[in-house]
Amino acid sequence: MVKKSKLASDLGRQNEPAVLILTSLASGEKHGHALLKDIESFAGVVLGPGTLYGAITRLEERGFIAPTESTDRRRPYRITGAGRAALGAAVAEMSALASEGARRLGHWEPHVVTSPRGIGVVPS
Amino acid sequence: MKPVAVRERLLRWFPETWRARYGEEFLALLEDAYGEGRVPLAARVSIARAGTVERTRAAGVTGTFAAPAQRLRSGSQVVLVGWSLFIVAGAVFSKFTDRWRGATPSSHRALPTIAFDAVGGAGALGVVLVLSAAAVVFPSFVRFLRAGGWSAVRRPLLGSLAAAGIALAASTSTVLWAQTLNVQERNGTLVAYEVVVVASGLCVVAALATLTWAAVSVSRRLDLSRVVLHFLVVDASALVAMMVVVTTGTVLWWTCEALYAPSVIRDGLGNGIVFSSDVAPVTLLAVMALMVTGLVAGLFGWSRVVRCRRAALAGE
What we know:
The structure holds two protein chains of two kinds. Chain A contains five helices and four strands. Chain A has helices at about 5-10, 15-25, 30-45, 50-60, 80-105; strands spanning about 65, 75-80, 110-115, 120-124. In chain A, helix 2 (about 15-25) crosses helix 3. Chain A is elongated, with a radius of gyration of 16 Å. By secondary structure, chain B is mainly α. Chain B has two domains: about 5-55; about 70-150 and about 220-315. Chain B has helices spanning about 5-10, 15-35, 40-60, 70-95, 100-105, 110-145, 150-180, 185-190, 190-220, 225-260, 260-265, 280-315. The interface of A and B includes residues 33 and 75 of A.
C-alpha cells in the first residue's frame, strides 16, 4: 500500500495547483503569468487566476515558497527548502503509486508522449 | 467599463488584507494574461471563488489562518446566522399552526402538544440566549464606539435600523388593516390583503437579515475578553441545542398531524399555492428546508467554536 506522508498530504493530489506550482518553481523562480504558462506547457493544465493565487497564498503561508525582490509589480516566487522537501515527498508518493500501478498491470508498458497539451501516458 | 476598472472591481472579491499583500501583482497577472481584452467568464468565476474562500479564511469562518479567538467569534456568528433562519422558519410555522389544536382529535393530541410546546419553549429560550449574548457583548461595543469605531459600523447599523423601521411600519399597518376586515377577507377572499401580508413578511425577513449582518459586522470588530469568549462558547452550544429541539419538535408535530389530523395540514397556510398535499405541503417543506439549513450552519459554527475554544481561552 502506498502511504501518504504528512508533507505530501499538505500539497494534495498530483494534479492540484500546489504540486503544479512547486514543480514549476523547482526549475527556477517565476512570477504569476510565467507560472501559468509553464504549468500549461508541462502539465496541460490551465489554472484560473484565482486558483493560482489561492494556492500561492497557501504555499507562502506554509513557507513552501517565498517572494523574491522585484522592481515592478510582477513579483516572482522561489521554492524554499521546506517546499523542496514537500515536493520531494509528493513526487516519491506519485512514483510509488505509478510503480504499483505498473506492477499490477503486468505486461503493460507505458509510452510517454508529449503534445501541445502537455505530457501524457498511453498504453502500448 | 474600462478593462482596468473591471480588473480592480474583480479584485474586490478578496479581503482588504489580501489585497494589500497580493493586489498589485494579481492585477499585473490579469494584465499579462488578458491584456486590454475582456476577462473570460471562467477566469471571473475562478476569481470570485478564490476571493470568497479568502474572505471566509480571513474572517476565521474556515481554515486555521485567523487567530483562535477570531475563529471562535466567527463560529459564534455562524451559529447566529443559523438561528436567524430558525426565526423565519418559526414565524411561518407559528402561522401555519394557528388552529391546529381544535382540528386534532383529543385522543391524539398529547404527543403533538408536547412537540409543539417544545418548539415554542426552545424558540423562546433561543431568543433569550441571543439577547443575553448581545447584553454580554454590549459593554465591548460601547468601548468600541468611544474609541472612535462608529464610522466602521455606521453603514450596517443604520441599514439594519432602517430595515427594522420599515418592517415595523409594514407589520403595524397590516395588523391595523386586518382589524377592519372580516374573517373571510382575512383568509383568502381579498387578494390585496394577501399581497400585503406577503410583502410585510418579506420586509420582516429583510430586516432580520440586515440585523444579523449588522450583528456580525459589529461583533467581529470588538475586543472581547476571555470571560465574554467563554460565555459565547456556552451560549452557542445552548443555541445549537435549541435548534435541535425545535427541528425535532417540528418533525414530530408534523408526523403526528399528518397521521391523525390531515385536515390541519391540508388547510394550513400556503397549501395549494404550488401544489396541494395532506402530508407534505409546500409551507412545511420550506420551514423544514430553513431549519435544516440553519441547523447545518449552527453545527458547523459550533464545531468551530468547540475546536478552537481551548486555544482562544488560553489567549493564544
